[in-house]
Amino acid sequence: MDNKGKFIVFEGIDGSGKSTQIKFLADKLKEAKIAYEITAEPSEGPVGVMIRQILTGERKMDNRVIAALFAADRLDHILNEEHGLLNKIENGTTVICDRYYFSSYAYNGVDMPMEWVIAANSQSSRLLKPTVNVFIDLDPDVALERIARNRQRTELFEKKSRLEKVRENYFEVFEKMQDETVIIIDGNQAPEMMAEEIWQKIKGYLC
């Protein structure tokens, strides 16, 4: 019997409702008595902290540097001896992650050649592939309305034209990577309905 944990990744443009759905899923895992942990990218590590400063405008860096930092942060997130994802999953903890390499392909792929971004993250995809990717699909106009209601300031990537391109990039890369398990969820549903649909579609991967 495989005693490893599973790796469930939530993807979507900013404002799509990932954080809410992650909380719903965590409640389901708790009810099912499945050991879990929630994490996110950028990570809480030193490279992740730098990326967050860039996203909020505290630091300025070239797009090529930003894309490389995301790839480096991801490797540290996977391999870190103290809190790395690989160790947690090997030890039986199911990890729910808010964003992973598909986010890099979609977001960094706006400014950089997509193939470059995929190659920069190739070690991560070999080391740790998600059990399932849950993509919450939402129109950028609706997403930006939600962001405006819920936040005092927007981040670097939260502009309509960019989010439209990011959404296109997600679907482009899903088409490219047929070996990945991707579940697409309509983000216009009520949160509780969406949570139930996600649970019904992913619970079979948790066995």
Question: In a few lines, what is going on in this structure?
Answer:
Helix content is 52%, strand content 13%. It has 207 residues and is of the alpha/beta class.
Structure description:
The protein has a 5-stranded parallel β-sheet with strand order 2-3-1-4-5. With 207 residues, the chain is of the alpha/beta class. Helix 2 (46-55) packs antiparallel against helix 3 (63-79) and helix 5 (101-108) packs across helix 9. The radius of gyration is 16 Å and the shape is globular. The chain contains 10 helices and 5 strands; from the N terminus they run E-H-E-H-H-H-E-H-H-H-E-H-H-E-H. It has helices at 18-31, 46-55, 63-79, 85-90, 101-108, 114-120, 122-127, 140-150, 160-176, 191-202; strands spanning 7-11, 36-40, 94-98, 132-137, 182-186.
List the helices and strands and how they pair.
Layout: E1 7-11, H1 18-31, E2 36-40, H2 46-55, H3 63-79, H4 85-90, E3 94-98, H5 101-108, H6 114-120, H7 122-127, E4 132-137, H8 140-150, H9 160-176, E5 182-186, H10 191-202
Parallel strand pairs: 1-3, 1-4, 2-3, 4-5
